[in-house]
Amino acid sequence: MSHAWQRSREQVVEYCRRLQAERLVYYTAGNLSRRVEGDPLLVAMTPTSMPYDAIEPEDVCIVTTDGEVVDGRRAPTSELPLHTLVYARRPEVGAIVHTHSPAAMTMAALGWTLPPILTGLIEAVGGDVRTAPYSRPTTAEMADFTTEALADRGACFLRHHGLVAIGATLANAYQAAAVTEGACEVYLRLRQIGEVPEVPAEEAEWIAEEWRAQWSAGDQAAATGS
Question: What is the reported pLDDT for 149?
């Protein structure tokens, strides 16, 4: 087993712990993955049906972007097609985080769009967060249906399901997922009061440049495991 495989597996476990600590997942729901350092056709991915606090590096699966399992003592997440198809179609994407957090699931169930109401949200995802049409879990359809919702964005809601976030690195993808959850909570509270103001369009576009910058720096960051 290469050092790159081990480092990628260890980082997946690290972010699994973060997902659980921040209540972005419950029990075995959700999943995450990242490309293996130095080999963009290989992906380190969470195993299926395993509580996050029990996952060890050896449980993290190594799969190809074609969906072939290369190494690992457990089977990969049942959402394997979502991950592998996004990686195969979008070479700039270095990591994917799929959460089942309460506020994001609320938005997903309602089919709402989260407007660009906070500067931090725009920095994390590039603008608003849209809802992709319903697709059956564990199918390739999910990757197909997120295409438009993820266009020039770092996250989208999966109708009646949860949230998927992408990034040039696992840190970027995790930031998108975590910040979106917090912004959803704020938005749902504000909706109870009345109309929710948005960041002016000109300012939102300027702030979004910080989010877009990750893609130009992504290759270098992935090479160092950032």
Answer: 97
Tokens standing for 211? 């989010």
Rounded (10°) angle between helices 170-191 and 3-21: 10
Instruction: Identify residue 210 by its one-letter amino acid code.
Output: E
Among 67, 33, 43, 58, smallest CA distance to 170 is for 33
Instruction: Find out whether 61 and 47 touch, Cβ atoms under 8 Å.
Output: yes
Helices and strands: H and E segment counts in the chain: 7, 8
Beta bridge partners of 64: 42
pLDDT in tens, 75-91: 999 999 999 999 999 99
pLDDT of residue 225: 44
Residue 84's nearest CA partner among 30, 31, 143 is 143
What count of other Cβ atoms lies within 10 Å of the Cβ of residue 39?
14
Catalytic residues, by residue number, are: 79
Please check the confidence at residue 223 and state whether its pLDDT lies above 50. no
End-to-end Cα, the chain, rounded Å: 21
| CATH class of the domain whose range is 3-221 | alpha beta
- 220 burial type by CB count under 10 A (0-12 exposed, 13-18 middle, 19+ buried): exposed
Stated pTM of the model: 0.94
Task: Name the residue ranges covered by the structural domains of the chain.
Answer: 3-221
Give residue 120's region: left, alpha or beta (phi > 0; psi -120 to 50): alpha
What is residue 75's predicted lDDT score, i.e. its pLDDT?
96
Model pLDDT for residues 163-173, shown as the tens digit of each residue: 999 999 999 99
CB 128 within 8 A of CB 115: yes
